[in-house]
Sequence to fold (114 residues):
Amino acid sequence: MKKDDFLYLADIQEALKRIMEYSSCSMEDFLASTMIQDAIIRNFEIMGEASKRLSNEFREAHPEIPWSLLARTRDRFIHHYAGVRMDILWSTIQNDLPLLQKQIGKIMKERHHS
Fold:
């Protein structure tokens, strides 16, 4: 793993941690709080931008991670911010991010042991 790849992956890991922390509330509280929504969307943007900056070699070595989906999600938030469906965002956080967090953690752990 290139040094830059590790730094971008660390950014993704930190953004995931923050999203999970910010979404530890109920769905009702999430839907009622634009502050929580904004904080979570910002961290999705960070994940997407960092995933775009990873080297092609790194992304190809880890096809289990939906790199292009992370990048497209970032683009959608940046360019279509008014069209974000918060119920879908909540579902994504609850159903998809725990696995992504585990996968990123595994890659980071492997990097530390190599």
